[in-house]
From TrEMBL:
Its main location: membrane. PANTHER family: PTS SYSTEM GLUCOSE-SPECIFIC EIIA COMPONENT (PTHR45008:SF1). Pfam families: PTS_EIIA_1. It comes from Enterococcus malodoratus ATCC 43197. The keyword Kinase applies. Keywords: Kinase, Phosphotransferase system, Sugar transport, Transferase, Transport. The lineage of its organism: Bacteria, Bacillati, Bacillota, Bacilli, Lactobacillales. It is a multi-pass membrane protein. Residues 28-132 form the PTS EIIA type-1 domain. It comes from the Bacteria. This is PTS system, glucose subfamily, IIA component. InterPro entries: Dup_hybrid_motif, PTS_EIIA_1_perm, PTS_EIIA_component. It is found in: Cell membrane; Cytoplasm. One of its GO terms (molecular function) is kinase activity.
C-alpha cells in the first residue's frame, strides 16, 4: 500500500541493433562526462534507428543526426547519431518522421548510412541521454542487443 506513490521504473529499449555500452565509452567529453545527462550508448551494427519508447517526437535537427522524444510520462529522450555528424548537413541520413508524430517502441525514426559515416571519418555511435531527468538512476543492460530489447531501466 505504501509503495503506491513511489516512482515507477521505466524500460528504455535499444534504438538500434548493436552493443549497448556505458557513456564512459563515448569518445566525446560532452556525453562521456554526462554534461547532457545520464544515459547509454550503442555501437551500431546497422543504420536503422528506432524509437526506444512510446511517445511523441518533440524535435528533429535539420541534419537528422539528432532528435528528441517525449515519453508518455513526460521524460525527454535525446537520441544523437554519431559524433560530429552535424558537419555532414544531413548527408548519409534519411527519415520520413515529423515533429508531433506519435511513435511506439520499435517504430523506425532515421536511417543512417554507416559506410558513409566511416568514409567521412565519423564515429557512428548512437547515444541516448535523458537531459532533464531528475531523481532517477539509469541501470544499463550492456551487451549485444537487437532493436526492442531492454537497453536500460530508469529507477
Amino acid at each position: 500500500m505504501f509503495g503506491l506513490f513511489k516512482n515507477k521504473s521505466s524500460e528504455i529499449h535499444t534504438p538500434v541493433n548493436g552493443v549497448v555500452v556505458d557513456l564512459k565509452e563515448v569518445n566525446d567529453p560532452v556525453f562521456r562526462d554526462k554534461m547532457m545527462g545520464e544515459g547509454f550508448a550503442v555501437k551500431p551494427s546497422d543504420g536503422k534507428i528506432c524509437a526506444p519508447i512510446k511517445g511523441t517526437i518533440k524535435s528533429i535537427f535539420p541534419s537528422l543526426h539528432a532528435l528528441t522524444l517525449e515519453a508518455e510520462d513526460g521524460l525527454d529522450i535525446l537520441i544523437h547519431i554519431g559524433l560530429d555528424t552535424v558537419e555532414l548537413n544531413g548527408d548519409g541520413f534519411s527519415s520520413t518522421i515529423h515533429e508531433g508524430q506519435k511513435v511506439k517502441a520499435g517504430d523506425p525514426l532515421v536511417q543512417v548510412d554507416l559506410a558513409f559515416l566511416a568514409e567521412n571519418k565519423k564515429d557512428s555511435i548512437v547515444i541516448v541521454v535523458f537531459p532533464e531527468m531528475q531523481n532517477k538512476e539509469v541501470v544499463i543492460n550492456p551487451g549485444e542487443k537487437q532493436i526492442g530489447e531492454i537497453a536500460a531501466v530508469l529507477k
